[in-house]
Amino acid sequence: xxxxxxxxxxxxxxxxxxxxxxxxxxxxxxxxxxxxxxxxxxxxxxxxxxxxxxxxxxxxxxxxxxxxxxxxxxxxxxxxxxxxxxxxxxxxxxxxxxxxxxxxxxxxxxxxxxxxxxxxxxxxxxxxxxxxxxxxxxxxxxxxxxxxxxxxxxxxxxxxxxxxxxxxxxxxxxxxxxxxxxxxxxxxxxxxxxxxxxxxxxxxxxxxxxxxxxxxxxxxxxxxxxxxxxxxxxxxxxxxxxxxxxxxxxxxxxxxxxxxxxxxxxxxxxxxxxxxxxxxxxxxxxxxxxxxxxxxxxxxxxxxxxxxxxxxxxxxxxxxxxxxxxxxxxxxxxxxxxxxxxxxxxxxxxxxxxxxxxxxxxxxxxxxxxxxxxxxxxxxxxxxxxxxxxxxxxxxxxxxxxxxxxxxxxxxxxxxxxxxxxxxxxxxxxxxxxxxxxxx
Length: 440
Prior knowledge:
The chain has 15 helices and 13 strands. By secondary structure, it is an alpha/beta fold. The strands form 3 sheets. A 6-stranded mixed β-sheet has the order 4-5-13-10-11-12, with helices on both faces. It has a 4-stranded parallel β-sheet with strand order 8-7-6-9, with helices on both faces. It has a 3-stranded antiparallel β-sheet with strand order 2-1-3. The longest helix has 15 residues, at 271-285. It starts with a helix and ends with a helix.
């Protein structure tokens, strides 16, 4: 990342305060704009930066994340809140009046006891956190809601993102709901349903010839040149990433305010996994759940598995790859949070594993036919990796386990369209039906 991009951040309309890596948005954010957040802090050198449109450390160019001074929060206060992510607003970088701001109100999706899938895989207690029921049918609605709040508080004029599909859907829908101009950038070879799901909400869908890393590079360049643009996963990324914490909060609350023993999470940039872990740690520190060990596992597709490769090699360095997998929502060849995924999985006693595209398809079908959940390729990856972890003995089948489904299968129909079809085509007669052998 170049120094001029760090300096630009969103827009230098007023002079910087001492210690700021660039100028703030005109007039600065209002009092309480970021709730109980106190500052941004570098994840590498711990340098502190004023809350604002900043995402890279001015000292070492490391990533910034949100730091807080949490008040005392009780289970009862959370349970009295709305049935969406704003029940956890005291733990997020959003204002106390966030419910009055037009947004898609994502979250509080179902946690299903997966008896049938658990039986097939030999896992005693298995749950599926099903985020396919969010407003645009993926977990990205969570992170976008937090990013939208930051963009509005920072007086951004354009709400934008580079995306592998689900994020573009969520940004376009949230922008429409909030009445802010949206521009979303996607790889031109993205699954057609995901393109339609974005274009229906915005007339500013831009298809880029290249993979996600090419699209992300372009977004970073635009963010460094254009004033007033809030790219959710670039220059307001610290706020955006915090939305993933709500997955962890919900899982703990839905389990009766306790943490699972094991959790399997898909890895694209790696942000979701790191933030779920962060949420568990916050709940422990706040006394909302019992402090207990838990294992975190990461799931990737073999065609884009730089974190899994590094984990198996026992190294801390992640070598970027060119993605080649049907799991396009996980196809980030240079994952920003990959090194932190390695740290968390190793520290908790988990692992990072990968599976082939054929195993991804198997995972999609298996989840659908055991639990009635139609997942996209990312969920197929997670279920397939869960199966592999059991087969290789890396996961303890006697411990309570949660697997996250991040999106709906209607977005990636092509991945399984040749795997499923009508069992028979018959004439409209009982004799013809009997001939199929499908009767009791």
